[in-house]
Amino acid sequence: MKNTLSAYENTLRNYLNRYNFPEAEDESFITCRAENTYEVFCDARRRGIDVPTSDELAKIVLFQDLDITFDDVIRDILAEEFYDDLPEYEYDNVIADMEYLLEEYRELYDITPEFMATPEWEAMKTELTGIIAQFINGNGL
Questions:
Q1: CB 16 within 8 Å of CB 40
Q2: pLDDT at 15
């Protein structure tokens, strides 16, 4: 991601839309939050903090108080990776059927904006995608 004001605006807008936050329609909220985020990034860089760490600090501000649930993450993975294999109305059933596989991850990861700004976030999503793929293939879905 580029560390520009417009990039932070786009990232926030996409996140709000993806997870159906009412703030997705509030352009002043998006602009204000993105400006604050960009200022945190620039301030961190002025203090000599490297780009990845500065971006992590900025994303904490960007996603502040915009928490999602673990099931939102699973629905997002299903929508992104398995849209050809599984209709959306089946997502909740698949999540319920996979509960025994997901329980460990629910306990292991606290889905917060701070966590979402770390490299572990992408690693978790990749691992969950593999588990979901095995479940779908193993159950003929």
A1: no
A2: 87
pLDDT for 27 = 94
Give residue for tokens 């971006």: 55
Distance CA 136, CA 114 (A): 30
105, HSE (Cβ side, Cα atoms, 13 Å) = 23
- CB distance 1 to 11 below 8 Å: yes
Q: pLDDT tens for residues 64-114? A: 888 788 888 888 888 888 888 888 888 889 999 999 988 888 888 878 766
Look at residues 70, 55, 72 and name the one whose alpha carbon lies nearest to residue 119: 55
**4 vs 127: CA distance, rounded Å:** 30
Largest CA distance in the chain: 54
DSSP 8-state code for residue 124 = H
Query: Taking 70 as the threshold, does the pLDDT of residue 59 lie above it?
Result: yes
**Angle between the 27-46 and 51-62 helix axes, to the nearest 10 degrees?**
150
Handedness of CA 44, 48, 51, 53 (dihedral sign): negative
pLDDT at residue 114 in the model:
67
